[in-house]
Amino acid sequence: MLYIAFDPIYIHPLPEGHRFPMLKYELIPEQLIYEGLITEKNLFSPGELPEEIILLSHVKAYWERLRDLQLSPAEIRRSGFPLSAGLIEREKRIAQGTINCCLHALSHGIAFNVAGGTHHAGSNWAEGFCLLNDQAIAANYLLSKDLSKRILIIDLDVHQGNGTAEIFNNEDRVFTFSMHAEKNFPFRKEHSDLDIGLPDGTSDNEYLKILSDQLSILFAQHKPDFVFYLAGVDILSTDKIGKLNISTKACKERDEMVLGICKKLNLPVQVSMGGGYSTKVSDIVDAHCNTFRIAHDLYF
User: Fold this and answer.
1) Domains contained in the chain, CATH given
2) What is the pTM of this model?
3) Cα atoms found within 13 Å of the Cα of residue 100, Cβ hemisphere only
4) Which long-range contacts (CB under 8 A, 24 or more apart) does 21-30 make?
5) What pLDDT, in 10s, does the model give residues 187-224?
6) pLDDT tens per residue, range 261-277
């Protein structure tokens, strides 16, 4: 069955501009239940991540300052969030949820984190609403427990996965692939193992052709035994900050392409949902739910 980590503490005192995108964390599970694709039994609320697991990916001094709410004003501005103990708890639960999803995917093929995709958090920095990097933490957990030997991270959020790239810069067992809008945030890019920076206005056919060509090469050359997929829907033409021109149909085809290859090759995959900032929350929720619908059709 679909195994889905959901965010039970997603509401915090946030600036007005941040409340709208956070609605999706509640609405996605509600929509999937309404459609009959899942029941409450498919959902789990993760606990808090142990500190020793965090330190596999994040520098101790950074983590301790974050934990103790001692980031500088400049670091807090870079994070995008007003710092609070509740926010730190949320980040720990998100990362633990991604680890739990990995363990389920190893047994059942696929699992989802409704939140997650905190790919801007580097080993010693917070940035772009990301404080702890959930997929990096989970990947390092798998490696540390000898549950995986070769990992492929497919990051298709509209923004480069700069934190993920930095964390795995010297880790040959993890291949980082980011396809993103080149002129979008972050404006200082890190170096993934493979970066494809797309020009503003890239449309459906070009996007899908580039992705298809690259995925064929990546799976053949890297030969992963575990896949992480960051399925951001901020690539949509309706997205307020995305800068690409991708339809909901093509976004769904993107998900079919990635998950279809993982299913064909019998590779476990963990999916974190990533960004989505369309003007209408229904556009965000529908595009994210398409990812779940495809997984349901392919795996169940």
Assistant:
1) 4-299 (3.40.800.20)
2) 0.94
3) 23
4) 21/275, 21/276, 21/277, 21/284, 23/281, 24/114, 24/273, 24/276, 24/281, 24/284, 24/285, 24/288, 25/114, 25/115, 27/281, 27/285, 28/114, 28/273, 28/285, 28/288, 28/289, 28/292, 29/4, 29/114
5) 899 999 999 999 999 999 999 999 999 999 999 999 99
6) 999 999 999 999 999 99
